């Protein structure tokens, strides 16, 4: 029961009491609930950053090629993307709070399974179960926030939501580097257990159970088509230019993905119960945030993997030393979270997204100029600047995507956005591994060196600029409702 509800049940109601209750509700919406949900998401972000930094060490322990370890990341994202369409329906059917807590428990149990893995296939299976849990955790947590927060408070609440989650990238590289350098790599998975325990307790105590009264029937045909299509697309990117599958089979995967997506498009047209509502993409702000922002997120997905390969294998740093170098990027992102709302209020979403896309693309390209002789302070300064501006872009895209979405479509919008993010991040990791492979072959190298890794940053940085095509078409006052101002009608 909210503070306002308790006041309304009191024998005497005063205006001061109502005002205090309203302030308490606003405080819960603005800080308490977003912070608790964000703290639960800490488990997921911590795992992602720790895993990226630990890949070279795990590869040596399992006697595998480091490039093959990217499968542990892409399969996590694949499982998450395939299961995401069901998460919104489950939240509406069973209640978001129950689904959210269940996902945290499943993530912790699958993390323990990863820690017990004795070979790469077992580790991949554990990561896939982690992905299933993550598919419910992030979108359902965001859905709770979207349905309990007025749009005028959404940007601030989103910033609070992501602040605890950003603690993972800040401490993840150092924590992961410390574990794999001085202890056993399996502890990077075991640390999720206490985080899950605390998270479940906080969610149970404070987070409301958002639930729809009327739930549409589950779209099994849509789930099958999107699942097979996504799996084929990601496997295709994973094996493009590699020696694991013949070229004909890789082409077949892309063809199967195209067929499945085409069939789903026909299936979803005019279907009110389609698992993914394609009509949401007609909303310009949602399209800019998800489709345009996807080109930015490709680089976001590729960067942790590329940095681990560059610093540890290319430059010969230990995991601990590399973690000390890269944590500064997340620290810069955390600083930006406090300044993003006033920047967006001052300049507006359109101008911020366009200008910041140029800055983010330039910082990705700047990583291509890192050399073994580059001073460490300079590398850290560039990484900090990149993290600072990428955080602003990430916050802007997350807020803009829901600016014009009605409450009754929030569930599907959240699910669709999360699925798209997982897809493009997995494509980014697969693309990064493919670029390193092709560049190494072109250079005639027999082993992985920094000469093959550094140019890949330039390629993914250039991809970021494509997103400007979507931002430039936005009206000047796009997203004004998020700051409590009505949009100008033309």
Describe the structure.
This protein is mainly alpha-helical and 490 residues long. It folds into 2 domains: 14-209 and 275-483, Up-down Bundle (Growth Hormone, Chain: A), CATH 1.20.1250.20; 219-274. It contains 18 helices and no strands. The longest helix has 47 residues, at 15-61. The protein is globular, with a radius of gyration of 22 Å. The protein starts with a helix and ends in a 19-residue tail after the last helix. Mean pLDDT is 76; it is low at 1-30. It is found in: Cell membrane. This is MFS transporter. One of its GO terms (cellular component) is plasma membrane. The chain crosses the membrane at residues 69-87, 99-118, 124-145, 154-175, 187-206, 218-237, 249-265, 286-313, 319-340, 352-370, 376-402, 423-442, 448-472. Keywords: Cell membrane, Membrane, Transmembrane, Transmembrane helix, Transport.
Helices and strands, with pairings:
Blueprint: H1 3-8, H2 15-61, H3 70-94, H4 96-115, H5 120-148, H6 154-182, H7 187-190, H8 192-206, H9 220-239, H10 247-268, H11 284-314, H12 319-337, H13 340-347, H14 349-366, H15 376-400, H16 410-443, H17 450-464, H18 468-471
